[in-house]
Design goal:
Elements (H helix, E strand, L loop, with lengths): L2 H13 L5 H6 L11 E5 L1 H12 L5 H15 L3 E2 L4 H8 L4 H15 L2 E3 L2 H16 L7 H4 E3 L1 H6 L14 H10 L3 H9 L4 H5 L2 H11 L10 H31 L8 H8 L6 H5 L3 H14 L8 H16 L2 E3 L2 H9 L2 H4 L3 E3 L11
Parallel strand pairs: 1-2, 1-5, 5-6
Antiparallel strand pairs: 3-4
Helix pairs in contact: 3-4, 3-6, 6-11, 7-14, 13-18, 14-15, 17-18
Length: about 350
């Protein structure tokens, strides 16, 4: 998000900080995500199915049962259904005001306003988590990746990331922070004439285009061995060009040192040797999953990555990396299994909302 977007959001929020004092106070009351809570990621298709059922536009007894299950597990604190910046972009793009706000109502109610960091921010976060683990620390990964509020979904940071917040006195700043964790805050952004276009113009997607295109490779008619070698070369190349410098930067900033595999070990892994490089790279799960799904998609489809696939990749990669259950499109579910990601990660990935009760207690 640009600095202008940051300023526009904080200006709107400052204008309305007084609107719902008691509700804002309650915005701080949600507990952190516990280890026994399921994190369930629904893509936009599933959210729309649930919204249409709640609105009465469809009447499907099976969907109604799933909606009841989701509402019950959410309110009981047994499951978390986080939102992403991609959800917000696609919801803001809906032309019908009533359906847009009804969908947002449902999302806010079920998610309890928990959101996942943007993929671009998670990439650096994975490096920081890796460095912490190498220093024999035990970081609370889930509560760093998933936090409450619209600021976290857009910036991957907490409310203090807004530079203008320090212009307020302490009491008003606290209210603004709470507002950004409230349903009112979400609805304020989506209902404000100056803010909605900043999401609905889909400019965030364009900012991610270069990020995605770095990972775009097209190879035709690969046999299994060639596919594996090209995939590994792609993975190692991206790690060396982008992740390794980030690790060095974080280590320099913190004054620490970590052990990283050398180039020779990585070249050996590319050639097919079963050493520990794959296990090492999976310590950066969002990167690993994003590259694998991108490569899988691009050996099937030629040309530049389109907007819908970009949305899917930018939301699915962190979701699969850090959620327990992911519901997505049939094609991405198939690629998750054909790329053998299910052998590397234990995330349950399914393509049908009606399959959720099988995996959710």
């Amino acid at each position: 998000m640009s600095q202008d977007s940051d300023f526009g959001l904080i200006t709107v929020l400052k204008m309305h900080y007084h609107a719902a004092h008691q509700m804002l106070k309650e915005a701080w009351d949600m507990p952190e995500i516990e280890k026994d809570m399921d994190i369930v990621y629904l893509d936009q298709k599933q959210w729309i199915q649930l919204s249409e059922q709640r609105r009465g536009n469809t009447s499907d007894p099976e969907i109604a049962e799933v909606l009841e299950l989701i509402e019950r597990t959410s309110s009981a604190g047994k499951a978390v259904y986080p939102l992403s910046i991609i959800h917000l972009i696609e919801t803001a793009s809906r032309s019908d005001d009533d359906s847009r706000m009804d969908l947002l109502d449902l999302m806010c109610d079920i998610s309890n306003l928990y959101t996942i960091s943007p993929a671009t921010d998670i990439e650096r976060k994975e490096v920081e988590l890796f460095v912490e683990r190498e220093q024999e620390k035990d970081p609370d990964v889930r509560n760093q990746i998933f936090q409450r509020g619209i600021a976290h979904s857009i910036l991957g940071k907490d409310e203090n990331a807004f530079q203008n917040l320090n212009e307020l006195d302490e009491d008003r700043a606290d209210l603004v922070r709470a507002l950004m964790r409230s349903k009112y805050g979400f609805k304020l952004v989506f209902g404000h004439q100056s803010m909605l276009p900043k999401l609905s113009d889909r400019s965030y997607e364009l900012e991610l285009k270069e990020f995605a295109d770095q990972r775009l490779f097209n190879y035709d008619d690969l046999d299994p061995d060639e596919y594996k070698r090209f995939m590994r070369r792609n993975m190692v190349g991206y790690f060396n060009d982008n992740i390794r410098p980030l690790i060095n930067q974080v280590c320099d900033t913190r004054g620490v040192a970590v052990s990283i595999p050398n180039v020779g070990e990585m070249r050996s892994w590319i050639r097919g040797d079963d050493n520990e490089i794959g296990e090492f790279l999976r310590q950066f799960p969002m990167m690993y999953i994003h590259l694998t799904l991108t490569f899988s998609r691009n050996v099937e489809l030629e040309g530049t990555i389109d907007r819908n696939d970009l949305n899917d990749l930018m939301s699915l990669s962190p979701a699969i990396a850090y959620s327990d259950i992911v519901l997505t499109e049939q094609d991405w579910t198939r690629r998750y299994f054909t790329s053998n990601l299910n052998q590397d990660f234990d995330t349950i990935v399914r393509d049908d909302l009606l399959k959720l009760p099988e995996h959710l207690d």
